[in-house]
Amino acid sequence: MGQRPLIKWFEKRQRVAIVEEAIGILEKTGVLIESRQALEMLADRGVRTEKRRAYFSSGQVEEALAAAPDRVTLYGRDGRGEVEIGKENLHFNPGSSAIRILDLEMGESRVPVSGDLVEFAILSDFLSGYSMQSTALVPGDVPENVADSYRLYLALIFSRKPVVTGTFTEEGLTRMLRMLEIAAGGGKQLRDRPMAIFDTCPTAPLTWSALTVNTLLECAGNGLPVQIVPMPLAGATSPATLYGTVVQHCAENLSGIVIYQMAAPGSPVVYGGSPAYFDMRKGTTPVGAVEATIINSAGAEIAAELGIPSHAYMALSDSKSLDYQGGLETAMGAAVAALSGVNNVSGPGMHNFQTVQSMEKLILDNEVCLMAERIRRGIRVDSSEVVADVINEGVTGGSFLTLSHTLKKFREEALFPGTVIDREAGDKRSAPGGEEILKRAGERKREILKAGAPNILTGPRREALKEVVTESAWRAGLKKMPEIEGLEE
Amino acid sequence: MDQFLKKCEDSVLAGDADTAFALASEAIGGEIDILQVIESGFVSGIREVGRLWEEGEYFLPELVMGAEAVKKALSVLEPALAGQELSREVRGVGVIGTVQGDIHDIGKTLVGTMLSASGFEVYDLGTDVSPARFISEAEAREADFIGASALLTTTMPGQRALIEMLAQKGCREDFLVVVGGAPCSEDWAESIGAAGYATDAVAAVELIGRLLDGKGGRTP
Ligand code: B12
Question: Among A65, A158, A267, B69, which residue carries the largest CB count within 10 Å?
Answer without folding.
Answer: B69
